[in-house]
Design brief:
single chain, 209 residues, alpha/beta, Rossmann fold, nine-stranded mixed beta sheet, two-stranded antiparallel sheet, 33% helix, binds 1-O-pyrophosphono-5-O-phosphono-alpha-D-ribofuranose, binds uracil
């Protein structure tokens, strides 16, 4: 069964409070999401394997370490996932970025896929699917399926805020996928919004409402 990690780092929790705040405007919202994404990337990469190397310092030769193992791929779910990509790339600049375009039909709440463009070597990469919101879980579930259908083998899911319903769906449908969150909220409302949540992540990031 996939693991669920909720990051309780004080900086993440502090910034998330301002992300949630209805008074936070688009510019500050975008900056805070970027910062939290970077802090989450720091935590998510804690278990990446290292290998020993020698490096010449100005003084002598040091036994040191560099990252080894699989290369990383980031897959934001359009469009709100885009708001977290730059933050993660600040820490993992060599990561390739694929895109999965989905929107949630407001009536059925079912995701509709409209775009998929991925690095050609996704089967060799450790993929991090990125979306600020895991609500019903339909969008993340479809995105993960889209990746697996195209050969992805190692997938993690990174979201700011999740509802229990979304977490349960991913755990059931993709028990191989670990989930990383800044918060696990109480529930969904009748429109499929996370409560207390932060509202519509895409609209707040891009100022479309
Ligand atoms: C939001 C969000 C997720 C999805 C979560 O996207 O960014 O992708 O809803 O909901 P779910 O877990 O119930 O599927 P939205 O459909 O609003 O599209 P947008 O990013 O283009 O605004
Ligand atoms: N999508 C969002 O942007 N917010 C929610 O609360 C649920 C889905």
């Amino acid at each position: 069964m996939g693991n669920v990690f909720v990051f309780d780092h004080p900086l993440i929790q502090h910034k998330l409070t301002y992300i949630r705040d209805v008074k936070t405007g688009t510019k500050e919202f975008r900056e805070l999401v970027d910062e939290v994404a970077m802090l989450m990337a720091f935590e998510i990469t804690r278990d990446l394997p290292l290998q020993d190397v020698e490096v010449n310092t100005p003084v002598t030769t040091a036994n040191a370490k560099v990252l080894s193992g699989k290369k990383i791929g980031l897959v934001p779910i359009l469009r709100a996932g885009l708001g977290m990509v730059d933050g993660v790339r600040k820490l993992i600049p060599a990561a390739k970025v694929g895109h999965v375009g989905l929107y949630r039909d407001p009536k059925t709440l079912k995701p509709v896929e409209y775009y998929v463009k991925l690095p050609s070597d996704i089967h060799e990469r450790e993929l991090i699917v990125i979306d600020p919101m895991l609500a019903t879980g339909g969008s993340a579930n479809d995105a993960i399926e889209a990746l697996k259908k195209r050969g992805a083998k190692h997938i993690r899911l990174m979201c700011l805020v999740a509802a229990p319903e979304g977490v349960e769906l991913i755990k059931k449908e993709h028990p191989d996928v670990d989930i990383y969150l800044a918060a696990l909220d109480e529930r969904l409302d009748e429109h499929g919004y996370i409560v207390p949540g932060l509202g519509d992540a895409g609209d707040r990031l891009f100022g479309t409402k």
